[in-house]
Design a protein that fits this description.
250 residues; 7-stranded mixed beta sheet; 4-stranded mixed beta sheet; 7 helices
């Protein structure tokens, strides 16, 4: 199917969802998303699942003790990061400015190989507005407008690379409630070298942000155009790897 036809079909599905505004149409839209914008951009590759409460897949044999790993979004669990540390003896740069994330880290007695920064990850550094959690039990602060009056200090990927004197990121995990769009755009704009990205792509059917399901599809297309392929997908959790990294992967 040509891309122009695919986009037209996608827009029609989105319009149907808006018109009906029911659960069945949302399922229909997600099926269309998978059909047009996930499966065509996927590549079979050997992966391994790491973590328990927060589980993500990474390309097998892609991480070692020297890997530079950035993980943004602590929430209430860091079993993924702990699994990386346990298996590969790697150091993880962990970021979360929210009271939820800070409290989770405060309770951790074993912080071996964790460098925790009480900062958010964004496309640029400085004070940035956040929105209150949509679910208080989950406690995830989201990308929000200035009117909500919640401000956290943030840092960008290029600033982190400079801070740690690195020239590439081996693994980037971002579960940041809407900030993923600008972070990924910054990778493209600043031509940053990021080998592998684990990301939950949020949209306004899930949390109160200004990104739609169509925006999520466009983000996947942009990643594809910049040389990334989907090697893992579960719901809206994705792992993207640079295509050249997949050559000879075993």
């Amino acid at each position: 199917m040509c891309r122009r036809r695919a986009v037209a079909d996608w827009n029609a599905a989105c319009n149907l969802s808006v018109a009906n505004n029911d659960g069945r149409s949302e399922v229909s839209v997600f099926k269309k998303l998978k059909e047009l914008f996930i499966l065509p951009f996927s590549r079979k590759a050997p992966t391994e699942l790491l973590g328990e409460a927060d589980q993500w897949a990474v390309l097998r044999n892609s991480i070692n003790a020297q890997s530079f790993i950035i993980s943004a979004g602590v929430g209430r669990s860091i079993t993924f990061e702990e699994a990386i540390i346990e298996k590969f003896d790697a150091t993880v740069i962990l970021l979360d400015p929210s009271p939820t994330g800070v409290e989770t880290m405060r309770k951790k007695t074993d912080k071996r190989n964790i460098d925790f920064l009480e900062m958010g990850l964004a496309s640029q550094g400085g004070e940035i507005s956040f929105g209150r959690p949509d679910r208080t039990d989950e406690g995830s602060f989201r990308k929000g407008g200035k009117e909500e009056g919640i401000v956290f200090e943030c840092i960008s990927l290029d600033e982190l690379l400079a801070k740690y004197d690195k020239n590439k990121i081996d693994l980037l995990k971002i579960d940041v409630e809407g900030f993923e769009y600008e972070i990924i755009e910054s990778i493209f704009e600043k031509k940053l070298d990021v080998e592998q990205i684990c990301v939950e792509i949020h949209h306004n059917k899930v949390i109160a942000i200004d990104k739609t399901v169509a925006d999520a599809a466009l983000l996947i297309i942009k990643l594809f155009r910049h040389g990334y392929r989907v090697i893992y997908n579960r719901n809206m959790d994705f792992t993207f790897s640079k295509q050249q990294r997949l050559v000879g992967a075993n």
